[in-house]
Amino acid sequence: MNQAIILMGVAGSGKTSVGLRLAEILGWSFFDGDDFHSTENVTKMSKGIPLDDSDRQDWLVSLHDLIEQNSSEGKSILVACSALKKEYRETLRKDNPEVLFVFLRGSYNLIYNRMKNRKNHYMDAGMLQSQFEDLDEPTNAIEINIDQDFESIIDNVLQKIDLDKDRSKHGIEI
Q: Does the pTM exceed 0.85?
């Protein structure tokens, strides 16, 4: 059965890094939600202006359609998407029952320090507060605490996602 795993959380929580590593391990395609933002959204964020719900609507619909297309083709995918609000997650999951959310949880200070040290990203660390303010913590997601080393985060995700009781059939080693 195909699966769509959405790695969610505020900016700087490690969605892309975790997604790329999981894609390598699972042999699935990875899509970074940031790549699906309009030029207008990227420009707005690069100026330090947080996106509002209307800015995010077309972006969420395009990610929903990406999930739906891959599902109809029988492909399992990983998607990095902040999915901060419950209604955003509902948009992504609508008619896509195979969607599983993995919430990468971290403290403001931990993530802020990570963001200050990253290079070549349009999202400024100063916008992190708005992300935390918008975050509706999910009640129906796998939660992974990111205050541990990277490989432990990956191991925890692999242990908690329910692909199959016999992970060896998928070539997954934990």
A: yes
